[in-house]
Amino acid sequence: MKKTLLATAIAGALGASAAAQAATVYNQDGTQLDIYGNIQIAYRSINNDDGNAEDDVFDNGSTVGFSGLHVINPGLTGYFKAEFEHDADEEKANGGLNSGDQAYLGLKGNFGDARLGSWDPLIDDWVQDPISNNEYFDVSDSSAAALKPFTEDQDTLYGTNDREGDKFQYMSPVWNGLQFAVGTQYKGDKEDADDGDIQRDDSNASFYGGLKYAVGAFSIAAVYDDLDNYDGEFANGDNYESGDQYGLTAQYTIDTLRIAAKAERYDSEQGDSDADFYALGARYGYAFADNFAGDIYGAYQYIDVEDGSNFLNGDDSANEIVGGVTYNISPAMYTFIEGALRDRQNDQGDGVAVGAVYSF
Hints:
Porin, three-stranded antiparallel sheet
């Protein structure tokens, strides 16, 4: 589930479990266990490759999660988080909890935060989310460009799910507004990339890192990821080098208004698949009679790709616009409506979505 601007502010003040309305099932002697989750059901109508609208009712990421912590000593806390997804729109047919979302364990304290497991890429959290961390439609990003440098099948090389796992990360404390994070994803020679299209001969550890600085209402973040685990050899003998990811985002918050700007690049080693992304985004928390009602948000992005890239299906540039509005029915329940214009051939990817979310 995507967080509203106000929910994010509450999370910072009260803790994530308070904002997500988690139920604390055990809290004694420095050990705490919470259960939380959400039901998300929506309707969407999106243009296909031929420009024809296709629609359905679908699950938008319904989740059940467990989190816990244990105070080892006053300066050191152990913690874990595990989230599982289910398809709420067709629960009976899909058999309940049928996939994982993220799971990790770690230690945090005065030294910072060390984490091991599976979670979103750092470039997603620090660079991409401030622009369009929406309910359904987001602007494109360098992760999507890296998926298909010279193939029509977007999932041939690797997917976001594969990038989220097998990671270790250290995040520093905040020193006078400055914070950094470094991490690695380790892939052993026993496992192939994603569905096996790229074969690994040796074990490998990738590198990613980021730097963030905040002063007052302004913050800036930069992230680099070498994508090194996705270099290798295809089954047909062709070699592939995935390239690198770079991103820079600046944001400024005024009361309930957040404005953000992004410059992001996928630098391909293949020579004809580079892609640059430049975006502006804004999110405003509106109210009626001093009662918070929801968010209004939108983003514009310009994409520039090298000749020969398949990311824009033959085009060398595109303008994307996404936007939406949420309305809070209660502190635990809200609705949303969103739309997207992708500037692709045959209006591919243009669409609308409307849905409801209940959090517990």
